[in-house]
Write a structure and sequence with these properties.
6-stranded mixed β-sheet; alpha/beta; about 400 residues; about 20% strand; 2 domains; Nucleotidyltransferase, domain 5
């Protein structure tokens, strides 16, 4: 089954085409075709990258016509050096990552008019993500018409959170209105949990896992018997760990103070907490961990710049350690710690500094393995009481698998 995956964000659109056969293993297949559209790197310009086994494309188009850009992107599937199928009718299903499914959507579903309306309604909870997801769905309806589409929700993996974790300590009537912890990055957390069990050759239901998805957005999940029982993101993807440009958890009294004393509006606070906080806000340099670490290491930088970058890194690690400790308490221990996402997979410094705090548990990193750009590897020493895995997350592959499963159920 040829499945097109769309992973839409507010600033970019990642796409991939997979060919899933009946006898395919659970291990990720390489996509036949991969593409990315970036709408924000240059103002007014959509940058397009396409990659296949036999060719590559890098070009630019006007950012004003998103449907036209997506239509052009699909043309690269059937023509030129990047051709991988004869006709767009070869595509049998389309899978979409949808960030927020609310309380109603606790698993992947075929997209119907009712589902589209729900995704639009839930945009209130995820304003930077759900509208982009919906735009991709509507574009595919125009371009591929009758091809079935599936919504794979980032919140679904956390749908079985116990109420003690999901309910906030605020008036219970708010919970009845849908204000609760939902959790996000669920597609990545679930994939990494299954991949960890494969790598360790153990039954997932017998593992106590903490998965650390560390990218521009960051979250942890405590996984017991194959399901998330606790996580750091909450009602929105803003909660929890320090992130690239998002604050993570802060004292709500700060926000009340800013509204009363500094006359901040809700929109002001939204921008401040989502766009100007986290690594970017503290370092004053960037939301990118690589640039923060580079500033720490460069002796030519001013003392103030070095100091702020160093502080940003230290806060990031402190909050990550604290979050892992909280997840351990929920699991009543831990067997395996997993690092994934752009930072989790690529920053040996983040991994080593984080794990250092848990040496008292008998966790020991192999310094050489940690430094050698590990992919889907155990980087703990043989004597370590906790396994530490670095896993390359395969969200698009997981979406393709879910899409196949749902379409076959029709």
């Amino acid at each position: 089954m040829k499945i097109l995956v769309l992973n839409a964000g507010s600033s970019s659109q990642k796409s991939a085409l997979y060919d899933l056969r009946e006898d395919a293993s659970d291990r990720p297949l390489q996509p036949l075709w991969e593409a990315k559209i970036d709408w924000t790197h240059r103002e007014g310009v959509a940058e397009i990258e396409v990659k296949t086994h036999s060719g590559k494309i890098h070009e630019e188009r006007s950012a004003s016509d998103r449907i036209g850009t997506l239509s052009h992107l699909l043309e690269t599937l059937t023509s030129g050096d990047t051709q991988v199928i004869q006709d767009l009718s070869d595509i049998e299903a389309i899978g979409h990552r949808v960030v927020h499914g609310g309380q109603d959507y606790r698993e992947s579903v075929l997209i119907t008019p009712e589902v589209r309306r729900a995704i639009a309604r839930l945009s209130t909870f995820a304003p930077s993500h759900n509208p982009a997801n919906l735009e991709g769905i509507e574009a595919m309806e125009q371009l591929l018409k009758t091809v079935p589409q599936v919504a794979v929700f980032d919140t679904a993996f956390h749908a079985q959170l116990p109420l003690s974790s999901a309910v906030y300590p605020i008036p219970y009537s708010w919970f009845e209105k849908g204000i609760r912890k939902y959790g996000f990055h669920g597609i990545s957390h679930q994939y990494c949990a299954n991949r960890a069990a494969q790598l360790l050759n153990q039954d997932l239901k017998e593992l106590r896992l903490i998965t650390c998805h560390l990218g521009n957005g960051c979250s942890l999940a405590a996984i017991w018997e194959g399901w998330s029982i606790d996580t750091t993101m909450g009602f929105t993807p803003l909660d929890g760990l320090m992130m690239g440009s998002r604050s993570g958890s802060v004292d709500p009294g700060i926000l009340i103070h800013l509204m009363r004393e500094e006359q901040y509006s809700p929109d002001d606070l939204d921008h401040l907490l989502n766009k100007d906080s986290g690594l970017k806000g503290v370092s004053g340099i960037s939301s990118d961990m690589r640039q923060v670490l580079a500033a720490i290491g460069r002796s030519k930088e001013s003392a103030a710049t070095h100091s702020q970058a160093k502080l940003a890194f230290e806060i990031y690690v402190h909050r990550l350690r604290s979050g892992i400790g909280s997840m351990m308490a929920s699991l009543q221990g831990v067997d395996t710690l997993v690092f994934t996402g752009g930072v989790g997979e690529n920053s040996a410094d983040v991994r080593s500094q984080t794990c250092e705090a848990f040496r008292f548990l008998g966790l020991e990193l192999d310094a050489q393995r940690n430094a050698n750009h590990p992919v889907d590897q155990d980087i703990a020493t043989p004597a370590s009481t906790v396994r530490v895995l670095v896993i390359h997350t395969e969200e698009d592959w997981a979406i393709a698998q879910e899409t196949q499963r749902i379409v076959r159920k029709r």
